[in-house]
Amino acid sequence: MPNGQYPGPLHPRRIEQDGREYRYFFYENVHRTGDSEDAQWLPEMTHDEEFAVFELSVSHDLSNKKGDLYGLRLGPGGRRILILGTREEQIAEFPLPQGDHPWHGYPVWPVTRLERDKKERKDGAPHEALRKMSFAGLITENQRKRLARGKHAG
Q: What is the mean pLDDT of each successive set of 10 residues along the chain, which is 154 residues long?
């Protein structure tokens, strides 16, 4: 698919990791402004900041068994987990793309603001990815436990 056929712009950088090449595009549906009950990146986050969340997930293989990646936005010094979504999410999901399509992502966890979110959340916390985040030293064990319970890392 040529660059113009993605539902959003491609990031100019590619990530090379373990013999694989990762490309990323910014899906326009998760970059809307105004009220939305759907996952949206914070409007003040730049594309480079969003890409940094993706790059962190790739570099630490913050994946689940299906190959989806999970990332987080770290504050200065890397000790504080920042909000990255309009529903106060702290974890982003990057679903494994089909074929040679580029990756994209959206804020996903914890989602507790709306009653609808509590009822419709099909998958629980990304436990495997959270364990990898803890093992890599990106989050503390206490933060991992809080996120696994659907609470903010603190």
A: 66 92 87 69 93 97 94 88 91 93 91 56 74 95 91 86
In a domain, 153, yes or no: no
Euclidean distance between CA atoms 105 and 68, whole angstroms: 10
Residue 90 in domain: yes
Q: Classify residue 57 as left (phi > 0), alpha (psi -120 to 50) or beta.
A: alpha
**Residue type for 106, please?**
Y
Element (H, E) at 119: helix 115-120
CA distances from 153 to 32, 74, 75 (A): 26, 11, 13
In a domain? residue 154: no
In eight-state DSSP terms, residue 9 is P
Structurally, how many domains does the chain consist of? 1
**Which string of b and e fits 81-103 if b means at least 16 CB within 10 Å?**
beebbbbebbbbbbeebeeeebb
Q: What is the extent of the structural domain holding 56?
A: 3-148
Residue 119, pLDDT score: 55
In this structure, the number of other CB atoms found within 10 A of the CB of residue 153 comes to 20
